[in-house]
Design brief:
Layout (H helix, E strand, L loop, with lengths): L2 H16 L8 H12 L7 H8 L16 H11 L1 H11 L6 H22 L12 H11 L9 H10 L11 H16 L2 H9 L13 H10 L3
Helix pairs in contact: 1-10, 1-11, 2-3, 3-4, 4-5, 4-6, 5-6
Amino acid sequence: MQVEKIKDFIAQFKEYLKNKDNRHHLYLYDLLKCYDEHWGLAKEPLSEMIDKSINSQESRTLWKRANYDPKERMVKFAEINPDFVAQMFRGLYDESKSIDRRVDRFFYGGEQMLQELRRTNPTSVVNNHFQDHSMVSLYLACAYPEKYAYYDKRSFIETLRLTKAANFQTIDDLPRFFKMLNTFDVFLKKDPEIFALHLMRLDGDHFYKGYTRMLITECLMIGTSG
């Protein structure tokens, strides 16, 4: 990735934050606050906890769209087998394991729960657990907001293209996205005014106000929106 191209992204994001029309992605920080207040794998019922934790007053577009409802599916899984679902999340959040292994195991768990759902509902036409790369990144970003961020495939691929990244491919690559976060994080933190501008628009108690790499997700979305 070319340094000057990365700096262009950061500069464009800063200009966006200075603009009055800078609230398009505040659902990212609303979600983090909601998760922070409600999440706990020991809470019962687990399905209700997940339902309350993955929520936003601003927008639900990340987990609820036409023919795409991963949160509802996970809530249903937790109703059927809460112990297994809790183990899925414990495995995903285990930082002692590699990210590749954790993500693969989570996908596998989703497949297993989908089969269990279909066994308990033989007439169901459900054929997708919807726990994709983006949703897995969302769970990780909520649990570790200073390390991970939401993965939007379109902006990720376009960022690779615009920054002249080596070995450019148009495929899902969550580990590479998380490495990209490390690079952008260095440049973002070199300008503390960016975080100050970000805080100025969080005008409610329902927003997470700590530093989070969700800022980088937003930066990439803004930088590739043209």
